[in-house]
Amino acid sequence: MNDHSTGSFPTPPPSEQIAFHRRELSVIMSLYGRMVAAGEWRDYGLSHLREMAVFSVFRRTAENPLYRIEKRPKLRNRQGQYSVVGMDGQILKRGNDLKTVLRVLERKLIRAVE
């Protein structure tokens, strides 16, 4: 007999979801705030999935995202767990340091302000 002699079926373990931690979100939201102030970005969406967490950035609500900031912990020891993906699906930058990866978007902010 097992430990769970309640007479019901065993409950499966909750499906693990990848999420951004508070520290990561703080870095992302800092950039997001500057881009909104520059008039470049207007909206965002967060997705927490089994393989990755995604922060999607939109110029207008209800359109395809301009950029996706992805966190894929399984790639930590390969290309890096963070990546910035463009609207066309092309990876613009990837690595294990979130601030370094986000610099590819900050360059766009500098051009927008000039």
List strands and helices in order, with pairings.
Blueprint: H1 22-37, E1 43-48, E2 53-58, E3 67-71, E4 82-86, E5 91-95, H2 98-113
Antiparallel strand pairs: 1-2, 2-3, 3-4, 4-5
How does this structure look, described?
The structure is a single chain. Strands 1-2-3-4-5 form a 5-stranded antiparallel sheet. The protein is 28% helix and 24% strand. By secondary structure, it is α+β, with helices and mostly antiparallel strands. The protein is built from 2 helices and 5 strands; from the N terminus they run αβββββα. The chain has one domain. It is globular. It has helices spanning 22-37, 98-113; strands at residues 43-48, 53-58, 67-71, 82-86, 91-95. The termini are far apart.
Give the low-pLDDT segments: 1-6
The number of E-state strands comes to: 5
C-alpha Rg (nearest Å)? 18 Å
Shape, per Cα inertia axes: globular
Which class do the helix and strand fractions yield? alpha+beta
Average pLDDT confidence is 85
Q: What share of residues is helical? A: 25-40%
Roughly what fraction of the amino acids lie in strands?
15-25%
Q: What is the ordering of alpha helices and beta strands?
A: HEEEEEH
Give the spatial strand order of the biggest sheet. Answer: 1-2-3-4-5
Number of domains: 1
| Sheet with the most strands, sense and barrel status | 5 strands, antiparallel
Number of helices: 2
What is the distance, rounded to the nearest whole angstrom, between the alpha carbons of the first and last residues? Answer: 71 Å
Organism: Tritonibacter scottomollicae
Protein name: DUF2794 domain-containing protein
InterPro entries: DUF2794
Pfam families: DUF2794
